[in-house]
Amino acid sequence: MNHVPARADKFFYRSIHADIGYLVLLLTALRLVWRGLNPTPALPADMPSWQRIAARVSHGALYAVTILVAMLGWAHSGARAQDYSDFFGLFHVPQITSPDKAAADAFEHRHIFFAYVLLALIVLHLAAVAFHHFVKRDHVAARMVATSEVDPAR
């Protein structure tokens, strides 16, 4: 987002970016509610305990950092003199901060840093999925999308 050159429509692109961030925050909150009401499938019984711990920590980190990035973006929006509160032209999103240039800069830098942390977590997660699917062939990834129990003999 910071590499968009200074142009007349830069605010438009930043506004769309913010709108997508508000959606990500809402969908992540709904996903956490869904996950609380619908527990995830059990991990394979033969999975080592360190992998079970790593799975729980990485999933928790993905949710936490996703929410953190969105909240920092929201805080950045409100701290700017010209905020990004117009949600796709439908209504104004209430801002959680007041205009403050120094705070806006701090929120922006942290938003960018944790966005890169989130990208690293996503890459790590995808590497773990590939490892389970192609190396271990333990059907961990298939259990996430199956509508019924996956047969481990397949």
UniProtKB/TrEMBL annotation:
Cofactors required: heme b
Keyword set, alphabetical order: Cell membrane, Electron transport, Heme, Iron, Membrane, Metal-binding, Transmembrane, Transmembrane helix, Transport
Transmembrane segments: 12-33, 53-75, 113-135
Membrane topology reported for the UniProt record: Multi-pass membrane protein
SUPFAM superfamilies xref list: Transmembrane di-heme cytochromes
Leader peptide range in chain numbering: none
Protein location: Cell membrane
Entries under InterPro entries matching the protein: Cyt_b561_bac/Ni-Hgenase, Cytochrome_b561_oxidase, Di-haem_cyt_TM
Main location: membrane
Residue ranges of domain Cytochrome b561 bacterial/Ni-hydrogenase in the record: 8-145
Family label: Belongs to the cytochrome b561 family.
Protein's UniProt name: Cytochrome b561
Organism: Bradyrhizobium elkanii
